């Protein structure tokens, strides 16, 4: 606690206003200026800290290193490629100097956790009201710059919303309505909410949130898949899983091909798009079973914001290969209790 307090007092900008003439100088004091929403998506290729089995990673995320301001993720047991998919919100006091810190630890049970690596993002690099998708390389220390060891990467989605934005991102809802900043952004953008909306009008709309919809996924093709069979070929197929509902779909098998073409479309009913994700796995079909090739993990943030897009995704866990997909989002307004 003492270390955190000292670190905070040094790292966080502290301004002391000394009045020369009598008057109200409260507007000169540093105060909260906005909210930062952080989606802790996943990590990959983490360094293994255990002699037996694999590390049990969890992450600590914070802007200010104070106990009540730091957020801790759940622990994913025995996994060097954990998927967290957790959301946190932080108060921002000075976007020009503050930064977000992520520290990934190996949970050692009753013993002290061991640091796997850490990373940080300057808030000044974030564009207000725009979601930023980043992969951060983990290092041993934020103070030591010369660290070339591969400790893994962590995947974040970040959204900074200053208070009182005048470009349509003002929160039109009452304070007791539990929404993430991203939901507020989408709500204001999709419904044309103006900053001039009266509190009464905002209250009438406060239960309407567009987070439910139909996700349409087209698995177009794959390229340069690694050979699995003895003859240097593979019989690939794709399994799609919506993480929260665990809904699954599967493509047909394409025999003897490292560049298969499927062009198959699957529809998923999504109840909570902002907090769900799509896991796409490529498998090799075998007469006596199946072999895992690689996977892609996708949040639904981009498709919700853009409506529709195509992308070519590298396969994690595979020596080579990429997957060509198309995603489309069809929103359905629903009402939920505040």
TrEMBL record:
The protein's matches in SMART domains, at most eight in alphabetical order, are given as: C2
One GO term (biological process): lipid transport
| Keyword flag Transcription | no
Q: Does the keyword RNA-binding apply?
A: no
For this protein, the record's InterPro entries field holds: C2_dom (IPR000008), C2_domain_sf (IPR035892), Synaptotagmin_plant (IPR045050)
Q: Which GO terms describe its cellular component?
A: membrane
GO molecular function terms attached to this record: lipid binding; metal ion binding
Q: Enumerate the subcellular locations listed in this protein's record, separating them with semicolons.
A: Membrane
Sorted alphabetically, which Pfam families does this protein's record hold? C2
Query: Where does this protein chiefly localize?
Result: membrane
Which residue range or ranges hold the C2 domain?
A: 15-136, 195-313
Q: How does it sit in the membrane?
A: Single-pass membrane protein
Per the record, the coiled-coil ranges are none
Q: Which UniProt keywords apply?
A: Calcium, Lipid transport, Lipid-binding, Membrane, Metal-binding, Repeat, Transmembrane, Transmembrane helix, Transport
What function does the entry list? May be involved in membrane trafficking.
Which family, according to UniProt?
Answer: Belongs to the synaptotagmin family.
> What name does this protein carry?
C2 domain-containing protein
